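Subject: Protein record for review, amino acid sequence with backbone structure tokens
Category: Structural biology, sequence-to-fold work with a learned token vocabulary.
Format: Residues in single-letter code; tokens as whole numbers, each standing for a residue.
Body of memo: The sequence and its backbone structure tokens, given next.
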Amino acid sequence: MVSVASVKDKAADTREQLQQLRAQVEALMSDRVSPALADAASRAESTYRAASDSVQDNAEKLSAQVRNKPLIAILIAAAAGFLLGKLFR
């Protein structure tokens, strides 16, 4: 027969093991996972900024070309519209 004291002792041991496991997981998170996530976020932000700058530069260049040669821009837009219209009919 299992005594109440034996069950209480096992429950206390289990609680202690869970606390130790929780402490190990927290230490692992702070030592390994958090720095890795911060590094990944930093790299993603840098990549986003570089891509955003590139898109903005290209948009400004295209805008300058349209201002310099508006007739060619209109002809290109009309041809693109015609081709898209043919494609989706």
Observations:
- Residues 4-68 form the longest helix (65 residues).
- The radius of gyration is 32 Å.
- Residues 42 and 54 are 18 Å apart (CA to CA).
- The mean pLDDT is 90.
